[in-house]
Amino acid sequence: MSTNEQLVERNIRYYEARLKHIDELFEKASKAAAEIPGADEELAELKAERHKLADEVAQMKEKSLEEWAKEGGPMVIWDVLAERLEKLVERLEK
CA torsion angle for 52, 38, 20, 69 (degrees, to 10)? Predict the structure, then answer.
């Protein structure tokens, strides 16, 4: 396995770990949202974003090294989603 292939695999594992962290935040938010009116709407919007990211990870696994090199990764989107979700959890747990 080449260094580039290892880098791609490492990035995919990193994205999968981020997705797992997001899922853990969703679990917390879901518990707290049950008691807060209107929180379900924001949570549903964030879940839709989460599903888009999960689809991107699945597509990444199918890409060649050349495609990976051209496109890079979705880290900005991941970070924005995680930040919004963390803020929602903080608001709901107060």
Answer: 30
pLDDT tens figures, 44-88? 999 998 999 899 888 888 877 667 656 655 565 666 778 888 888
CB 25 within 8 A of CB 35: no
* pTM of the entire predicted model: 0.68
Token code pair at residue 68: 């990976």
According to DSSP H, which parts of the chain are helical?
3-33, 39-62, 65-71, 75-93
Give CA–CA dist 74/91, Å, rounded: 26
Determine the Cα–Cα distance for residues 43 and 46; give it in Å rounded to an integer: 5
Q: Which residues of 28-54 are buried (b: 16+ CB within 10 A; e: fewer)?
A: bbeebbeebeebeebbeebeebbeebe
